[in-house]
């Protein structure tokens, strides 16, 4: 079993960087929260993530084929009237096989259709009963099985993983008091502040209704028409453009619950919280050119990455934490905590770690598990309660409705992946595909015929769910948004301020790409007007590539100097390189190259990364040919001495023209660490790449190993790219 090395260094990392806001949050001190388990001591996963699913698994090894009703059959050939005659209606085997095929699909999710899932285990760091009655947080070391599904939002089920998009981060805890879902995303905010706008948002972002173009992309008129009219979206748009839209992998993104929730104790005392999953792999993102190439070369990049990591035992890990604040602090941070388009900077309310999730098991059947899982923000357990965030409130309806539509009936909670670990007892009955056999004939409450059972459970009886007793609601009915939600520009301004110059350039380039696709001059101008309210320099730089737009004078109403240290993705080295991909470029025509590749391959694999030796043919020791390989396959790459010839000549019928050189040049252009052992540096001269940060030349493989270990942690060398003057 693996030990968890990185966590101890990540605990207690709340670094204060000039707090721009009015008042600090309620930080849970260690004493407040009970003893936290030493993270290094959580070594053993004792709970099997799939134990409760095992009874539903079908094992087809060494058995005869049967119909769905169990009759052994031969279904390889249909029943005909003569070998050359027509197929007969009588053929129940044929009919069942075809009919089952015709019905294989259910409607894909209207959003988040493309995703990948995995099982894991959550371990609580301590006894948190002083802030919540949630049983999965009640004891140090308590383990709870989990399922997680990560996704893009806009693309269809078969779209590319590396599309620029917000990413879903939906987590289910199979707790011993029922299922609890945090259905979050990889940014702390959402586009809109009222769920009634969701269909508008999604209609604007999805492909055009006439020609279904573009797929999985926001770079079109309707999206920017919406963003420039519904300006609550600007905060999220800025984060997506600054790198959050193109994560390197699902493993390298954080997750956020986004809305404010309540934690409630057994006694009914409540605090407000924001949920956060911190990736212990660190945050890392693609560059846009790389993401686009990845989409074309390997549309399964993200699902493959997490699958391979889990198969190799490089179990990805996230730390669950909460920002905790008081009921009285709802308006204390300069905005309204019920507005999901705003986040509380971690300098203002640091994150209190609660436990750790380790994903350690891949699903066995994509449809049965990853496709059929039906997350709902309404899957909630005792000790947790909602807030009046209007988007959360709307979601409580929509997800249930979406599952009904996808399953065509109300028994979707009976699918193995949706069943709770604990028995269910209620008077819900019948419906399509009922899989239980309810035996209670008094399916109503109150009853005497079943001795009053199932009994009602509540705060004091039966350990039941309860609404926080101090939740207050008052006010006249009104179809209006709170004025405390009105500022749509101060936070995107803070996001912009918090980016390094290189990241600002990434955001500018991203917006140049996106807005270059806008045909309507009105939409272009509207968008420039809106980002001018974030920053005049940003607006001017984006507008540089457009025609027919005027950059208005600075609109300083919302300009501020606030910053947070927690937004920047590229400024922080990764805590670990485990599970990254590394390429060693070699040539089968050089013994020197092949023997160096074999040695280096072993040395680099010892760093806990996936190493591929690339050469012309798949002789032993080669993992990828130049016919198949591309720079997107590697987070870093090294050229072996003896292989220089293929960079100089670059022509061989065994691979596309100039491919080896192209791999090297693109890896450099995607900001990756690249290097050469010994004489192989001549390949770099040919590629026009000089030695500089992230470009390593050495005669010593030991030096290269340590250079690359550091280089892969740096991940992207942004100083290679020009900044606007
Ligand atoms: Fe979702 N969302 N959403 N959403 N969402 C769905 O539910 C919806 C929102 C999120 O991997 C759908 O089961 C409304 C915020 C994730 O299975 C649907 C609103 C956040 C997933 C739906 C929101 C999310 C969904 C599609 C109000 C982040 C994928 C199928 C504005 C905090 C879950 C389904 C998975 C999926 C509706 C807003 C995240 C249609 C009405 C905010 C991660 O019901």
UniProtKB/TrEMBL annotation:
InterPro entries: Catalase, Catalase_AS, Catalase_clade2, Catalase_clade2_helical, Catalase_core, Catalase_immune_responsive, Catalase_large_C, Catalase_sf
GO CC terms: cytosol
Signal sequence annotation: 1-16
Keywords from the UniProt entry: Heme, Hydrogen peroxide, Iron, Metal-binding, Oxidoreductase, Peroxidase, Signal
Reaction it catalyzes: 2 H2O2 = O2 + 2 H2O
Any GO BP annotation: hydrogen peroxide catabolic process
Enzyme class: oxidoreductase
Molecular-function annotations in GO: catalase activity; heme binding; metal ion binding
The enzyme's E.C. designation: 1.11.1.6
Domain Catalase core as annotated: residue spans: 66-453
Cofactor list: heme
Chain residues that bind heme: 399
Cited function: Occurs in almost all aerobically respiring organisms and serves to protect cells from the toxic effects of hydrogen peroxide.
Family of the protein in this entry: Belongs to the catalase family.
Name this polypeptide is given: Catalase
Biological classification of the source: Eukaryota, Fungi, Dikarya, Ascomycota, Pezizomycotina
């Amino acid at each position: 079993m693996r030990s968890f090395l990185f966590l101890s260094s990540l605990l207690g990392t709340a670094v204060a960087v000039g707090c721009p806001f009015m008042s600090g949050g309620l930080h849970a001190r260690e004493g407040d929260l009970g003893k936290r388990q030493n993270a290094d001591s959580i070594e053993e996963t004792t709970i099997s993530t799939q134990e409760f699913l095992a009874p539903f698994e079908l094992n087809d090894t060494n058995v005869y084929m049967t119909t769905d009703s169990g009759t052994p059959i031969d279904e390889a050939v249909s029943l005909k009237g003569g070998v050359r005659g027509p197929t007969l209606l009588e053929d129940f085997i044929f009919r069942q096989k075809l009919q089952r095929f015709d019905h294989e699909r259910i409607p894909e999710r209207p959003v988040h259709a493309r995703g990948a899932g995995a099982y894991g285990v959550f371990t609580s760091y301590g006894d948190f009963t002083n802030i919540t009655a949630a049983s999965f947080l009640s004891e140090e070391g308590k383990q709870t099985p989990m399922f997680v599904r990560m996704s893009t939002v806009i693309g269809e089920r078969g779209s590319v993983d590396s599309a620029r998009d917000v990413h879903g981060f939906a987590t289910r805890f199979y707790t011993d008091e029922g299922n609890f879902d945090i259905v979050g995303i990889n940014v702390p905010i959402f586009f809109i502040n009222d769920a009634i706008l969701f269909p508008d948002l999604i209609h604007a972002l999805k492909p055009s209704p006439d020609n279904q173009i573009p797929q999985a992309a926001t770079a079109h008129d309707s999206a920017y028409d919406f963003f420039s009219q519904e300006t609550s979206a600007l905060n999220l748009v800025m984060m997506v453009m600054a790198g959050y839209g193109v994560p390197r992998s699902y493993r390298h993104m954080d997750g956020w619950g986004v809305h404010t929730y309540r934690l409630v104790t057994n006694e009914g005392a409540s605090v407000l919280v924001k949920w956060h999953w911190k990736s212990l792999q660190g945050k890392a993102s693609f560059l846009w050119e790389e993401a686009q190439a990845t989409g074309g070369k390997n549309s399964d990049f993200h699902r493959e990455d997490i699958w391979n990591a889990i198969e190799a035992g490089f179990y990805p890990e996230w730390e669950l934490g909460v920002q905790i604040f008081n009921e009285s602090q709802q308006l204390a941070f300069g905005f309204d905590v019920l507005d999901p388009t705003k986040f509380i900077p971690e300098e203002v309310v640091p994150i209190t770690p609660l436990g750790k999730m380790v994903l350690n098991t891949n699903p066995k059947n994509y449809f049965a598990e990853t496709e059929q899982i039906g997350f709902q923000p309404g899957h909630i357990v005792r000790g947790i309660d909602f807030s009046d965030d209007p988007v959360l409130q709307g979601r409580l309806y929509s997800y249930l409705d979406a599952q009904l539509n996808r399953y065509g009936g109300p028994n979707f909670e009976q699918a193995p992946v949706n069943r709770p670990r604990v028995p269910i007892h209620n008077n819900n009955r019948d419906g399509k595909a009922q899989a239980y056999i309810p035996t209670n004939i008094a399916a109503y409450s109150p009853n005497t015929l079943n001795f009053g059972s199932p009994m009602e459970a509540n705060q004091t009886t039966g350990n039941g769910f309860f609404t926080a007793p101090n939740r207050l609601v008052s006010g006249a009915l009104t179809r209006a948004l709170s004025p405390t939600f009105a500022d749509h520009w101060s936070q995107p301004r803070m996001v912009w301020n918090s980016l390094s110059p290189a990241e600002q350039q990434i955001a500018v380039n991203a917006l140049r790409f996106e807005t270059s696709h806008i045909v309507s001059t009105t939409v272009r101008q509207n968008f420039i007007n809106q980002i001018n309210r974030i920053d005049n320099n940003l607006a001017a730089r984006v507008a540089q590539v457009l025609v027919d737009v005027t950059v208005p004078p600075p609109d300083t109403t919302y300009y501020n100097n606030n910053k947070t240290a927690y937004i920047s993705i590229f400024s922080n080295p990764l805590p670990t390189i485990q599970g990254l991909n590394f390429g060693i470029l070699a040539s089968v025509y050089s013994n020197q190259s092949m023997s160096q590749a074999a040695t280096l391959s072993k040395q680099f694999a010892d760093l806990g990364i996936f190493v591929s030796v690339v050469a012309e043919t798949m002789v032993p020791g080669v993992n990828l040919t130049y016919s198949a390989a591309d720079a997107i396959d590697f987070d870093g790459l090294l050229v072996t001495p003896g292989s220089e010839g293929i960079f100089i000549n670059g022509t061989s019928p065994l691979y596309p023209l100039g491919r080896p050189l192209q791999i090297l040049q693109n890896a450099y252009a995607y900001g990756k660490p690249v290097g050469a052992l010994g004489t192989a540096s001549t390949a770099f001269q040919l590629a026009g790449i000089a030695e500089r940060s992230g470009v390593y030349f050495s005669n010593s493989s030991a030096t290269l190993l340590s250079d690359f270990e550091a280089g892969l942690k740096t991940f992207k060398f942004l100083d290679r790219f020009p900044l606007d003057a």
